[in-house]
Fold:
Amino acid sequence: MDKPFSYYVSLDGPHLDGLIGHAGMLRFDWPAKTTSMEYYDGVSGGHNVSIAPSGKIGLLGNFSQQLVLVDMENLKELTRQSTMRIEHANYRLRSNTHHLWYDDNQHFIGAVGDHLYRFDINDLSSPVKLGPHLLYNAHELRWDRSKRFILMGDLGPEDAAPRQVGVFDLETNESTVIKLPDTCWHVCVHPEKPLGYAATYSFATEDEDYVDWSPAFRREYVFEIDLPQKRVRRSWSGGAEFPIHLNSDIGVYDDKLYLSCGGSHTVVELNLADGEFREPRVLDGLPDLWKRARMWRQKIYNIIGASARRPTLINTHYILQTLLVTGWRNMDGIYSARVSPDGKYLVTGSRGYNVLTVYERESFKKIYSTQLPTFGPEVYRRPYSKFLKRINGMHLGMHHSEMRPEPPEN
Structure:
């Protein structure tokens, strides 16, 4: 019999760029197969879900410089706090997007400005400063089982590719920067061993403008990092044709690394057994044809969004790189993918096609798939501005996700 779990996904709205839209959260319950969702007024750029160990409260990481505490049962907002009171931010993407919870369910760690802070949910405005992270813009945060070492991805500033990650030691409150051949936004850690993993996120720009960027068709890497030694232990790299572009969720289960690939419409599984990385498996997460056809409004909106960011006639090299990354599609792929707590299933969210799918993890056999409600007044649940009618019928904007085991006892 299936063990119940809840799958939570952050929502960023209907845009091609997942960094500029609304902020919301989706909950999917298994095996009930029910969904609920909520968007939050006054918060933008929904990006990541961080659930406290109790499973009862969580944080919606976002790009609007706000801490947003949420009740994970009903998705209602509990409280929020602007981080601009704590440190200044002179860049729209310089924000607290990922968080780490302590076992007491009251304290968590987040990056604000140049530093890591420890927060108390009872007083979000007065955190304890832990130390400088030494990165341009600390993004995903993950710590090892001992909760001593924090592996940090780097989003970078507006005008440079960071090409580095950091390891923060909570015993010394000191950070070590590890230089890499390409930029790594997203990281994860091994659940048992003091090892971390960082995957490259390759994008192309013009005149070092990292606001209007495009996917880059080039080789990608995965790095295994020895956290106590703070250095790369081994690495894997695939040719540009390997479908592992624009990763989002990455995680380890049963000594296997799973990477959701928003550009390539895939989930890639790498075997982490000692020695060299074993032959990878690739899950093709392209939804059924009729589900893809239903999102025709989104396809048109994506073309408009892409054209608004670059002059089409003189930037064909960026357009062709994007199409090579996506397999000649103008839709986003799988941005959310997590293994169920019992390891039986792999649950994915196809952002562009607005489809949530449950696969059997061992065989990659499709078990269940549903196309979610599109963005509109019945989803947003707010006074429906006439301006929002322009994006009615678009996808919800699934981004990072997190799993919660069966609901805790009251």
About this structure: The mean pLDDT is 92. Residues 377 and 383 are 8 Å apart (CA to CA). The radius of gyration is 20 Å. The chain has one domain: 20-405.
